[in-house]
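[retry 2/3] MFS transporter: previous attempt timed out, resubmitting with same input.
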Amino acid sequence: MRHNRPVRGLTGTGPGASLSQQTRDTECFACYAEVRQMLAGGGMDRLPRDPRKLREWAMVMSVVGSLTAIDRPLIPAGAEVLIPGSGAYSEGEFESPDRTGLHPVESPETFPQSCGRPHSPSVRRRVPDNIPEDPMTTSSITPQTTSANRRPLYFLASSLFAVRLAAVVTSVALPLLVIHRYGVGLDSGLTAALELLPNFLFGPFAGEIVDRRNPRKIAAVCALVGAPIVALFPFTHSLWQIQLLGLASGLTYTAGVPARMALRGRAIAKGHELSGNSLLVLAQRLPTLIGPAAAALAVQIGYSAVFVANAVVCLSAALLVIRVPLRPDEPAKQGSDRPPVARNIVAKVFKQSLPELGRSIGGNPGLAALTVIGCTYMFSSYGMGKFFLAGFSAHYYSRDGSFFGYLVAAMGLGAVAGSVLAPRFRKFRQGVVFVACGLVESLAWSSYAMQHNRFVALSAAAVVGICESVGAVVYYSEIQTRLPDRLVGRYFSFYIALGDGLNVLGSMTIGIVVSSSVSSGALLTAGAVCIPLLVLCPLFLLQRFWRADGWTPTAGEAR
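[retry 2/3] MFS transporter: success.
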């Protein structure tokens, strides 16, 4: 079957299969575990578990090329593709030559000299020694990268820092502006709620669009549109205008967050998920530490200056995120040949996207466990924990109105420290690190039930911040490793929408409990953090569950 005419002008780089240090992130190696499982399900159980032992990559390259052609789409639906089953053999199926007799060829010019060199035991072929025996998680691979390879990561981290800083400053300055003009009441509370409403209503549909379009462009447009919205807040003349702007700001948040999540896979080189996500988590946590203080100080200058400066920060975020490069196959996807987003997007989300996402999560026990714990954590630590600290401060330190701010600052400092420390845990199994962080954080929350010493309370808040940040780095790294790129936007759009709801539910729950007993609130928060981890502990600790290649291909991929 020939596809010369549709292929011409649409193709990017071909699939590579080299295991050299420079090309470790080639498509074939990245998809090896998925292809191996797919072929095994079809009765072709010939590929070894360790990709280093594969000596002929023709069949793997054919499968990866066919899947890429289906995605573009160059191969029409219902077409048959014949892949010869003989294009794969590995060590043990033949007698390998003595590697001491192999001479490296550095360039075409040195080829004749290499062919003519005598046998020398000191000359050996370099074989990468940091490919895992079983490709469980790429966070254990530590290939070298250059500063040029990390530039996309730096651009994304800087953009994420700018967007997050603008959001934190707005979350402090906007309520102050509303209360200053209109006082405290139901209408002012509704203003804050309207910013979250679009994410509840349109989050899943935004993820569908992100996965089908260019996430870089979506992230940049959301930041550009958000800039004038933020700048207009102090120039409004009635509360309904502020509420309308808040609703519009929420729409940019709904589409922008999953778009930036989808860019992680483009900015972080394969094998560097842990260190890359550590930098991104640091970029997210720093604004929560410096943003509130900066907003409080800036308000003294004037609301107009605060929001206009915030708009400039949003513009810088757009300029930075546009520097994150596309993958080689993505320019072709932006043309007119790409299938448009379905008109009936509601039916598509619930009939296709949700079942496909469910199959992907259900086919990988580690991914399923991470998703469940992520949702329960939004309810427990994010929802219950933050509100509990406010109740704890009001109960024991009612005369010191600033102590709650100290607790939040201590947690922020811990979060920054945790994002810096996270890469140091790469030598340990990430499932074990994730469980350990949750259990230590649970102990820190329970300490509030036993004492109310000022120093111990601040130390416990710092420990919570460290554990939360390290756990977040592991979570994002493993999600990036296990989840197919085409599902990242949809996954995080559903996750964030559900997480926001669980966050509100957790705050309401702990508010009822703390009003009667602060100690009970501390124990309830600790239990909500550790009980789901203890229930799902085998999925994180046992090797057969915590495999990154336990992912089941969907029907579309198995065509």
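[retry 2/3] MFS transporter: The longest helix spans residues 151-182.
[retry 2/3] clearing retry counter.
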